[in-house]
Amino acid sequence: MSKHTVVTMPGDGIGKVVLPEAVRVLEAAGFQADYVHGDIGWEFWQREGNALPDRTISLLRQHKLGLFGAITSKPKKAAEAELSPALQGKGHVYYSPIVTMRQLFDLDICIRPCPSFPGNPLNFVRRGKDGIEEPKINAVIFRQNTQGLYSGVEWTNPPKLVRDAIETHRQMKNYAAVDGRDLAISCRILTRPACQRIIRAAFEYAKKFGYKSVTICEKPNVIRETSGMMEDEAKRIAAEYKDIALRSTNIDAQMMWLTKNPEDYGVLVASNMFGDILSDGFAGLVGGLGFAASANIGREVAVFEPTHGSAPKYAELKPSIVNPIAMILAACMMLDHVGQTATAGRIREAIGKVVAEGKVRSYDMMRLSGGPAAIGQGAASTEQITDAILGKL
Ligand code: NAI
Ligand code: MG
After folding, report:
1. pLDDT over 70 for what percent of the chain?
2. Please, which of 26, 56, 222, 369 could form a disulfide with 31 given CB 3.0 to 4.6 Å?
3. In this structure, is residue 339 part of a structural domain?
């Protein structure tokens, strides 16, 4: 087994709490790796004017595998106010390090698995004809991670050249009389190769893990060009995968369907914002932020993270009460990525046992309000949850 080097980037707040827990699990599961620490987050913004220092970028470029906790980010003015005095007024601009990482390494494929662990009190349930049903959900969302509405090409009061250019489109006649200062434009940009890469990744995953369908989730009847391109490419690529059915839904209808029959969906694929919405929707059915993990995969570098942020209000609690499972599931995705699917499977199984047993539960699983009182009310600490998982490994 080749030995990997993982760049661990705990970041801020509870990122610092959950990341070491995931490393504990990886080590106990026998994953052969070295770990090097990567600086990232708010303290480096404050001290150096850069939340993602070049040395961390170099480590990622060298080792190709990143495990990331979470960062704190704040709006532009608030960020500037917290810069160290020596750096203020020098033109430093805060950029989110995770967004920067995605762009810098072209981490264009985002994978967000949303499996339900049976017995999780946070799981979606519904009334069936014989009482309450808890369907087994096993959706995996593939989200194009770098383009679409998040490509950052946008203006309020667009420059004349831009305004003149878009006014050549006949639909713009509806806005001809609008003052530039009252006109905001965000471009939804997609390239055919990016569509092909995300769709192919979805089909390959379906093939590798035995899913029967891939659902393309767009809105091609209205957003004809970009959603249309996604849909066209999905049809072309689907033809190469005879055993996997291509289904097509509109994002709005899909958000309704997932609250009715979420168990019917396997792999889903969407452009950036629709994938973002879709994955939060599914995550909410299987436990929410304490359980939601994601992978950001490029041609060379891949970074794995829980979906949650730095949850500052819980960062300093001793003992910590936050749920480490999302971070541990992110580590499992890293194992899948490097071909150690059996080890990942053993860890997921251990998590499943702890959840099913229900003896050790984090405050979010007990629907308690988080805070120092949670432990007294029966919630397990972060460390106890990891220990319980290790006990089942
Ligand atoms: P958040 O995800 O940090 O926390 C929201 C709430 O979710 C928490 O207050 C807590 O109740 C719950 N929660 C989150 N993680 C949990 C866990 N592991 N176990 C149990 N409960 C958990 O989002 P929020 O409060 O909107 O943002 C806080 C900071 O995090 C902001 O600065 C934001 O910009 C940043 N952020 C960073 C992300 C990242 O690093 N990828 C993603 C989202 C937010
Ligand atoms: Mg989101």
Report:
1. 100
2. 26
3. yes
